[in-house]
Amino acid sequence: MIDILKEIGVKVKGDTFYSKKLKTAISSDNPSKIRASYYLMGALISKCGYVKIKHPGGCKIGDRGINYHLEGFKRMGIKVAINDFIILEGRSQGGCIDCLKSVGATINFLLASTNALKITKLINPAKEPEVLDVINYLQAIDYKIIISDEIIIHPKSKGKSISYQIIPDRIEALTFMTLGLLNGNLKIYNANHNHIESVINLFKNNNGNVQIKKNYIHVKKSKLKELSFETGIYPNIPTDIQQILTVAALFCKKKSVITDNIYVNRFSHCEELKKMGANIIKVNNTITVYPSSMFGSYVVGKDLRGTAALAIAGLVVKGKTKLSNTSYLERGYEDFVKKIKKIGGKIIIHDN
């Protein structure tokens, strides 16, 4: 993502980003490598009135088309053309836009609405912490946004420059919490426990030793009873942690039944875990996970969270595990290998 930002003229220095003049035509293939590149559509159409970008990439975990986004832009009065590129042109006219509870669409419409000609009303918006953080940021730079069951955006031509601290990554926090429950005694800093309450309750209700402290979350190795759950829209258990919790379920006392209601094909990790001794039965979008005797093996990561799940499994089973396609981890974790080594994990990256 940083490479894309640099391509359009953003100056990057550490955690600081600034720009004077932005380019709106992105010719490289970088946007096709990550899904989050689609946020540039809403941002650039609002700021510049034009954007040309390759189709976004991302993991193949089910139906993740961006039709919601493009149809929403059209309803805003923005011209949309699709070929090898996605081309947007014009300025939002405002109006009433249905977000269909999509996090990505809600954020994109928020961004596109900031410089609209009229007020924009977003109905059925997603309200995940990441969406609310974008709203908090926009409010901090002087945009008037009202949140109730709907989101109302009052446009203006320009916001002010500020320093802003984004929220912690809740999925990263849960990934390391899961590792701690399986094989460790970890203190996880810079994590907002309020954002992950559904999973913390799942752990605690099943004998998980999780303690909420003032500045960190303390997790100790625990023999969990089971981890049966269904994923859902926030504040329910997020789909992004489902694959990682599958690994924890393999070490529980009893079988676990896990249903993913968001992405029905998010089970690429299961066949790979079977190579490590996992006993998992899949029926449609539900898996039954039985306590298993696990061992190291050669496995292949096929998407971001599935690769993280396999990495966690490799760290806690007996024997060595060779994991390929580790580049997936870079999409969702900062310095994953460095952090694992810091807590005593033995992990070596040979190539990607």
Number of helices: 11
The total count of strands amounts to 18
- The helix/strand class is alpha+beta
Fraction of residues in β-strands:
15-25%
Q: Termini separation (Å)?
A: 18 Å
Overview in brief:
This protein is α+β, with helices and mostly antiparallel strands.
Provide the fold topology.
Blueprint: H1 2-7, E1 11-13, E2 16-18, H2 39-47, E3 50-54, H3 67-75, E4 79-82, E5 85-89, E6 95-98, H4 103-113, E7 120-123, H5 129-140, E8 144-147, E9 151-154, H6 170-183, E10 185-189, H7 197-204, E11 209-212, E12 216-220, E13 229-230, H8 242-249, E14 256-259, H9 268-274, E15 279-283, E16 286-290, E17 298-300, H10 304-316, E18 322-324, H11 336-342
Parallel strand pairs: 6-7, 13-14, 17-18
Antiparallel strand pairs: 1-2, 3-5, 4-5, 7-9, 8-9, 10-12, 11-12, 14-16, 15-16
Helix pairs in contact: 2-4, 3-4, 4-5, 6-10, 8-10, 9-10
Molecular structure report:
With 352 residues, the chain is of the alpha+beta class. Helices cover 30% and strands 20% of the residues. The protein is built from eleven helices and 18 strands. It has helices at 2-7, 39-47, 67-75, 103-113, 129-140, 170-183, 197-204, 242-249, 268-274, 304-316, 336-342; strands at residues 11-13, 16-18, 50-54, 79-82, 85-89, 95-98, 120-123, 144-147, 151-154, 185-189, 209-212, 216-220, 229-230, 256-259, 279-283, 286-290, 298-300, 322-324. It has a four-stranded mixed β-sheet with strand order 6-7-9-8, with helices on one face. Strands 13-14-16-15 form a four-stranded mixed β-sheet, covered by helices on one side. A three-stranded antiparallel β-sheet has the order 3-5-4, with helices on one face. Strand 15 and strand 16 form a beta hairpin. Helix 8 (242-249) packs parallel to helix 10 (304-316). It is globular. The two termini are 18 Å apart. The relative contact order is 0.08. The mean pLDDT is 95.
